[in-house]
Fold this protein.
Amino acid sequence: MQALLIARKDLAIEIATGEIVTTSAFFAVLVVVIASLAFYAGPESKVSVAPGVIWVAVAFAAVLSLSRTWQREREEGALSGLLVTPTARSAIFAGKALGMAVFITLVEIVVVPVTALFFNVDLVAMGPGIAMFCLAATPGIAAVGTLFGVMTVRTRARDLVLASVLFPLLAPTLLSAVAGTRELFNGVPIAGLVDYLELMGVFAFVFTAGGLWMFEILIEG
């Protein structure tokens, strides 16, 4: 219940302002457009280029979203106020991760159709598979970002630190998502992509469990 309250607070602020999703989605679309102009080489490029474009855009948008989410908590001592409430630290982590997962999902809803448009991807055929990869990848991205995003709260070079820490940790999820999406575009059925989905699921589980355990240490440190 406490986690849902934290997530609802973040979502209510976003509904009122729209700054995180709007900014992140615009940035992600810009990445897609630039990549399509730079790397598009005919219909065959959708297999070799489009998977990377989708997940690079999502990864960059996630970093931007995380940076802004924690900046909100720094403003006017909001995080300090949250910490003095009788809220479990694990609930804070779960609520922030849940809100972050919603933000990333909204960005994916924008990025995937735009990429399909520029790279001539058949969303009717590929849409269910892409949706499964998004569902598998998003929890891990949100959990890692929330766990290590708190490290930037008291850091001056917060954006540099977040990107430097986050991208190496996201490598298993991003590489699995890119490789799996490429195989999907090559015509491999969804049943043949289970290994990629399982790897992303394991990654999400490990960092969610680790976040519930370690978040208090990081946020109190």
About this structure: The two ends are 26 Å apart (CA to CA). DSSP finds nine helices and no strands in the chain.
